[in-house]
Prior knowledge:
The chain is α/β, with parallel strands linked by helices. It has 48 helices and 16 strands. It has a 6-stranded parallel sheet with strand order 7-9-10-11-8-12, with helices on both faces. It has a 3-stranded antiparallel sheet with strand order 1-2-3, with no helix packed on it. A 3-stranded antiparallel sheet has the order 4-6-5. A hairpin with a 2-residue loop joins β2 and β3 (18-19). α18 (462-471) runs parallel beside α20, α39 (806-822) packs parallel to α41 (846-862) and α47 (966-982) packs antiparallel against α48. It is elongated and about 120 Å long.
Amino acid sequence: MVVDFGVLGPLTVWRAGVPLELGTPKGRVLLAVLLCRQGRPVTDDALAEAIWGEAQPKSAAKNVQTYVHRLRQHLGDAERITRQGQGYLLRAGRDELDAARFEDLAGSARAALAAGDPERSRRLFDEALGLWRGPAFAGIADVPALTSEAARLDELRLGALEERIDVDLRLGRHGELLGELTALTMEHPFRERMWAQLMLALYRCGRRADALQSYRQVRDILAEETGLEPGQKLRDLHQTILTEGPESPENPDGPVPGAAVADAEREHQSVNSARMLPPTLGDFSGQRAELEEVDAVLRKDRAADEPAAVMTISGPGGTGKTALAVQAAHRLRAAYPDGQLFAVLDGARTQPVDPVAVLGRFLRALGVPATAVPDDPEERTDLYRGMLAERRILVVLDDAYDEEQLAPLMPASGTCGVIVTGRVRLGGLGGAHRVELREMSEADGRAMLRNCTGDRLASAAPAELADLVRLCARLPLALRIVGSLLVSRPHWRVGDLVARLADEQHRLDALRYRDLEVRASFGLSYEGLRPEAQRLFRLLGLLEAPDFPLWAAAAAVDTDLREAQELLDDLVDVHLLDVTGTTNGQARYGFHDLIRAYARERAELDEPVRDRNEAVERVLSALLALTDIADRDHMGQNMFQRDAARWRPERVEASVPPSAPLMALLDAERVPLVTGVRQAAELGRDELCWELAVGGHTLFETERYFDDWQECYETAMRLAKDAGNMRGRARLLISMAGLRYTRRQYGPAEECNTEAMGLFERIGDRRGYLEALSNAPFFLVPNGHLTEAITAGSEAYERLNASGQAAAALHAYSQVGLAHLQAGRPEAAVEVLAEIVAGARKQGIRTLIARDTYWLGQAQLALGRHAEAEESFTELSAYARDIGPSGAFYLAHAWGCLHLARGEYADARRRLLEGAEIARAIHDPLFETRVLVDLLDLRLYERPDLEAAIRQGEQAVEVARRIDYPYLLAGVLQKLARLRASAGDDTAARNLADEAAAVGARIR
């Protein structure tokens, strides 16, 4: 007996014109799922999941049997639902299911239109649309097993409605359509085809202005809601209405502006068209720019003799390549009216799909009988390309393995388009346009979570939502899993899930929902690698550094640079590793956060502890080798004895790009240095730890990374003390003395240096003792002990030279020149500083050239030798960058002083104010005091507003008091005393002069 099943609205069943009782809501869901999978069996597990979701009772399988039994009773036909394997099959003819009848009637309507009978086409479309009683599966469409089918049917209804309206327009019923189209465009404001139909109907009714107003309305809606402009066809229609003359309302066959209607009619005129696309995601989010790029490339018309348009979408597992491809393909259906072919090629699996088998599927979908499909692969390819010739068909090839797999599946006609997705970069597809997917933006990540969880996030705090997106590393797959977990576990709070994901060691365990799993997605790419690349992937995951260069990869697996580069390229090709940027010609590589977690997990599973530790130590010892190279280049020689092993320094040096500034390359390793010190400490490698901390000294000092400097010192010192490593402690104390000196804490700096000298003396380290001794003048000069500084600096110069430490000797001797200058002996200062600069040039010590040409020029200015000072400052200009932000200050201050000495007050003010700004930006009170003293001189020379000058003088005194530097404080007190005297404030002037004398007395 014929039964009528209705799903185009609320679920109904009629037999002989009488509605049947369907029992409980769960029984109705079971029937709906069986109808949704018409002609295919549905497993017990799938039925149980549809009925109960996650909250399945222990007796779910038995209960399913009970519901099936009751449903058979309601239908009055036990054979309607039969057992098939591990599930049930509902038997229903196409004439018994309203959804199938709808599709058949719509197909007949299209055929009638193609045959030139629009009146019959209109009647058939009306009959098809008349079957609808509401949204598909109304009331139960939110059941996950029904959602995609309900969405598909609702989309088909709207498409058929648009086609019926096209027929009405062809029949000249534009006036009758206005009310319906006005309502439809308000109900579906993003369906541009309906807006085109409304504009066309208005235009043909002689309402040209209203048609143009409709375009402005849809343009405003799209811009406000999506940020997009109307599509090309709608823009073409608008342009045609603007430029063409008035059309007679009675002329239904007049111009059809814009190709929207014509394309829509043509879409259904082909026979044997294939419709193989899977449904789109109802909560598709993000990737809007990429979607527009794919659309723009593949929507462009091409001639048959041109190459097919090809778009490749690549990226790591979980970035939404398939979702983007399917979304784009659905948007392009009207542009490819002769069909859309789709195949999953399993390129990430160990056994990719044979393209010959895919050709067989495609040919059958295109209407070739199974018995007529050739067995020979070449014949299949020839037949396939012949059938695609001159036809507008879109081919979507998901998860491709390589170009060889794709070759037989590529159309030969420019009328076709191709979308290919894959984890590998398919560089061999000539002429292809490429899109690479990465993680989502934070805003898109939040939008995706909201889209796939509905109101579950309504109570979530913004900070929790931000944490959730961050812990998912903005990976679409991870976000989708998190959304599914929140929906399926209503008792979970957002904070609960954040807490689970915060556990880095088990984060990948938490990112799993049924058959969705982040770990499995990464594993597909990993398993396809050769063993050597797998090992590099595992070992690199152990590094705490956010990114790394080629030499780090070579050290991790202890290989040469060429082999390491090939292995890195393997990882980059499958998106398990990213090229994060290039520093001075040297590429840097890094992991996506979740991929790093997977790499580390694999290392802990597959690598013995000893091998893991040795790999990390090799990379850190290679980093040590780089600090040696940079230190030697910057300081003229390696300044201290080093005991920890270096990994193949010649390979590290060979990886450095020619002419690359070594300090800039080391700067790129700043974070790896800090994390490396931490990792060495965790491994208990005290020599490696303290040498890495000290190896960063020059970088930290030059670029003023004070917080990193302090952290490295504290981490390494704790380990050195625990290990009883006295040399390490002494070396770290010298480094800490440098940090405190640079921060202008001269007393604490001297204490660190003195303690270091004592430790070196106790262990008999003569070289270390001499280096600590050579630092003494650096503390004597600020304290005003100039005579002692000259004696100590000269002695250190002789002893260091005698021991072969020429660079250290010159650094110590520089304080002798500065002491002479501050003692009022500029001639002696010029003599010493000129000798230092000459020695620094000879040894290539750029940092010393920069600092001492500055001081040499200052001494020359004190002697009135302006031309010689200009020469010194010109040389300084060539080297200032080598000493980081300090160099910029030296340069501005030096030229400001020269302009001031020459009476060029406007230029002097400009450069001195520039110097003051730099000093404040780098928080250096010593530099700020120096430049403020000269600005006071400038004010005295210019005779400006006396009150303003006094305020500036008081500011200078306030800054100078922050540091214990008698020479500078005495100078600024004297200048402020002069200003107070000029203002008639004799008492204040006398007090300031007395204080200046007392401070000056400390200078000897």
